[in-house]
Amino acid sequence: MKSLFPMRRSEVAALLFLIAFSGFSFLPVWRRIEIAGIAVFGWLMIALMLISPVLTLFVFLRAERRD
Fold first, then answer.
1. DSSP class of residue 4?
2. Handedness of CA 43, 46, 48, 54 (dihedral sign)
3. Which of 2, 27, 49, 51 yields a CA-CA distance of 20 to 30 A from 20?
4. pTM of the entire structure?
5. pLDDT one-digit tens code per residue, 16-51
6. DSSP 20-59
7. Taking a C-beta distance cutoff of 8 angstroms, is the pair 44, 25 a contact?
8. CA atoms within 13 A of residue 39's CA, in its CB half-sphere
């Protein structure tokens, strides 16, 4: 079965990285450890909210320069 639209390798790599980072972030162990009074889970969620749009924009802009 074909996908709805083709994806470049860089897009697949970014998607896999974000899925892996999300899975890593939601591990229960991060809810007990605190840094500066905030659970590591919170810091990882902040990082995910910053990394995902920046990474996606970087991948898309890099792909458009190639075309």
1. S
2. negative
3. 2
4. 0.79
5. 999 999 999 999 998 899 999 999 999 999 999 999
6. HHHHHHT-GGGGT-EETTEEHHHHHHHHHHHHHHHHHHHH
7. yes
8. 11
